[in-house]
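Input C-alpha cells:
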C-alpha cells in the first residue's frame, strides 16, 4: 500500500521559512519522480515542484521559483520542500504525490498558513 505522509506545515509570518517533509512507503521510492503540490482555499490544485528519481532534474512552478527548494533522501524514502520568503499567497494545503506503476497517489496534506 502506497503511503505518503507530509509534515512540517504551520503558521508563519510573511518572509518566513518552513521545511516540509514527506515520508513515503509502499513503492520503490528511489525509482520514482516525486512532486509537491498545493491547494489554496477556493482554488484548484497546483503543482509546485518535481524532482526526478536521482535528484538531478528539478522543476518549479514560476510562482515559487527562487524561493522554494525541493530535495530528496533516497536512503530515508523522504522528499523535502524548503520554503523561504513565504508570501500570503503561499497559504495552502501542501501535498506530496507520486505516479507509481501508472497510478497517481496523493498523501495526506499539511497546512501552511502565511499570515501577519
Amino acid at each position: 500500500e502506497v503511503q505518503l505522509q507530509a509534515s512540517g506545515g504551520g503558521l508563519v509570518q510573511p518572509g518566513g521559512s518552513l521545511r516540509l517533509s514527506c515520508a513515503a512507503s509502499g513503492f520503490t521510492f528511489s525509482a520514482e519522480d516525486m512532486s509537491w503540490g498545493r491547494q489554496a482555499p477556493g482554488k484548484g490544485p497546483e503543482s509546485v515542484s518535481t524532482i526526478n528519481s536521482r535528484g538531478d532534474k528539478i522543476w518549479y512552478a514560476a510562482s515559487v521559483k527562487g524561493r522554494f527548494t525541493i530535495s530528496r533522501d533516497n536512503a530515508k524514502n523522504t522528499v523535502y520542500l524548503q520554503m523561504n520568503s513565504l508570501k500570503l499567497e503561499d497559504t495552502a494545503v501542501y501535498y506530496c504525490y507520486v505516479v507509481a506503476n501508472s497510478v497517481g497517489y496523493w498523501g495526506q496534506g499539511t497546512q501552511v498558513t502565511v499570515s501577519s
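The first strand starts at residue 3 and ends at 7. The mean pLDDT is 96.
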